[in-house]
Amino acid sequence: MAHKITVTGCPTSPIQDYGKYLAFDMEEKGSPNAPKGVPFKSNAITYTVVLSLKQFNKLNINQEEFSQRRFVVQGEPCLDIPFEQCTGEIGVICMQIQEIENKVKEKKETPKKGSRAQNPENSDHKEESKKEKTEKLILAPEGTREWMSLEDIKVPEPFLQFTPGMAKQKAVEESIEKNGTVDKPIMINPDTHELVDSYSRYFVAKKKNLDRVPVHY
């Protein structure tokens, strides 16, 4: 069985174009605390990720914007990347890459002493802006391995003949309204991207026009 590596974060280097493929660096920070009894700490590791032009073009992001986005990369370690191209400590062949939401921290504003009361209209506008920011935050359910476009998931014909019950649909819809996505990851085959289980979640996600869903396998 091939070794698997999952790296999450923003690129830490400009993307390098080698014609048929591209490469860039990503860094994973170590865990602050090791398990009890282990006398070593986990250190930060820099990975050099190699991906095909087809994988990059599928992201619909230009090279200038690439370093400002956040990604999850699933791949396999590689020892054959030329030394001058592998600027990181470990080379990774990218099998799948998915853009994920950046975590946004909202600053709380404290009114200054002696300041006048805010205009109600301005206050309402700020409340709406905060609400919009909150709605954009998507909580990944436990067990999520990566995020995948609904269009990339292949649904076998037997599933398409089935309509999920209203109770199951309602539970998933409530999760989407609350967390921005389905309540549990959708089970797929990692090699074929074929739906294995959780058709009810796929059905509701498509009905709600979600662009991406969490998946597991």
Tell me what you see in this structure:
This protein has 217 residues and is of the alpha+beta class. The chain has helices at residues 53-58, 63-66, 120-136, 157-160, 166-179, 199-207; strands at 5-9, 16-17, 21-28, 45-52, 70-78, 90-100, 146-149, 186-187, 212-216. A 6-stranded mixed beta sheet has the order 1-5-6-4-3-2. β8, α6 and β9 form a beta-alpha-beta unit. α5 packs across α6. The chain starts with a strand and ends with a strand. The mean pLDDT is 81.
Question: What descriptors fit this protein?
Answer:
217 residues; alpha+beta; six-stranded mixed beta sheet; three-stranded mixed beta sheet; 6 helices; 9 strands
Uncertain spans = none
> Strands of the largest sheet, in order across it?
1-5-6-4-3-2
Helices and strands, in order, run as: EEEEHHEEHEHHEHE
Number of helices: 6
Amount of beta strand: 15-25%
Number of strands: 9
- Range of helix content: 10-25%
**Largest sheet at a glance?**
6 strands, mixed
Give the termini distance in whole angstroms. 15 Å
Structural class: alpha+beta
Categorize the overall geometry: globular
Radius of gyration: 21 Å
Return the average pLDDT rounded to an integer. Answer: 81
